[in-house]
Amino acid sequence: MATRAKSRTVLWRRSSFHTEKSSYAGVASAHAQETQALVLLAKAPIPGSVKTRLCPPLTPDEAASLHGSLILDVIERSRSVPQIDRWISCWPSPGHPFFQTLASRYGLRLCAQVGDELGMRMAHACQHLMALGYHRVVLVGTDLPTLSPDQLRQAFSLLTAQDLVLGPTADGGYYLIGMKRFMPELFQGIPWSTSQVFALTQQKASGLGLSVGLVPPLRDLDTPSDLEAFIQLIHRTAHGGSLSARTGAVLQVLARRLLKREGTYDRVP
Predict the structure, then answer these.
(1) At residue 166, does pLDDT exceed 70?
(2) CA–CA distance, 30 with 64 (Å, rounded to integer)
(3) What local confidence, expressed as pLDDT, does residue 78 receive?
């Protein structure tokens, strides 16, 4: 993780992610150990490079802290999914200390993100894993506070009968895509980060003659309105409902800071 001045405050325990060099856990093996792979498309939590749509109202450091907690959520909740290898497609590189520590601690495999835009990066990740011998690959985002292990298990289960699996988001995109063979057409000609992504992907799948299974929709955390919605979730439900304790605590701190700075989020947990 990038070194920052001591005066900057982060909301999750950065000290637990040491910066010493470690080996690429699991990367030395060029072949799949399981027939299924889960791939997390993730950026290291570098202030100013992640969750920029949340700035303002958040500061770059606050946004990076929230981002880091959400990455850990997906990693920890995927541990109970059986018979899969877990990968992170990494930006800026697999050698970043944040990813090195995650690989060592959680037994993850690492690969680089390749491509100038989101579709290219997702396509490369799927193609790379298929080339290693995986029969089913599920790619998932990392800005999903309420993602559950059941949704991940369901995605792999659906792939036994379906050609493609999608997990729609409330804003018209998708948070998850899974396939049994690499189909680059699914990632081409899509206006990423718009409300058309999910519908156009379904249209492309139909045109290719693919059967499509759906896992339950989720709300991702990309915008200030998403941030407010998840802060209110803590207010409405005991301990934030399906939020992790860590992410719930981060959101509580952010709500109090925003109230103090801007007088917003008046129903602070």
Answers:
(1) yes
(2) 32
(3) 97
Class at the top of the CATH hierarchy for domain 21-221: alpha beta
Name residue 1's amino acid. Answer: M
**Which of 88, 103, 92, 139 minimizes the C-alpha distance to 18?**
103
Q: Give the pair of three-digit tokens for residue 166.
A: 């999608």
Contact, 1 vs 45, CB < 8 A? yes
For 99-128, what is each residue's pLDDT tens digit?
999 999 999 999 999 999 999 999 999 999
C-alpha to C-alpha distances, 6 to 10, 51, 146, nearest whole angstrom: 10, 22, 32
Whether pLDDT at 247 is above 90 = yes
DSSP assignments along the chain, one per residue: -----TT---SS-GGGS--S----TTTT--S-SSSEEEEEEEE---TTTSSGGGTTTS-HHHHHHHHHHHHHHHHHHTTTS-S-EEEEEEES-TTSHHHHHHHHHHT-EEEE--SSSHHHHHHHHHHHHHHTT-SEEEEE-S--TT--HHHHHHHHHHTTT-SEEEEEBTTSSEEEEEESS--GGGGSS--TTSTTHHHHHHHHHHHTT--EEEPPPB----SHHHHHHHHHHHHHSGGGTTS-HHHHHHHHHHHHHHHHHHS---S--
Distance CA 41, CA 112 (A): 10
Beta strands 164-168 and 174-179: pairing type? antiparallel
Distance between CA atoms of residues 37 and 267, nearest Å: 41
Domain chopping of the chain, boundaries:
21-221
Give pTM, 2 decimals. Answer: 0.86
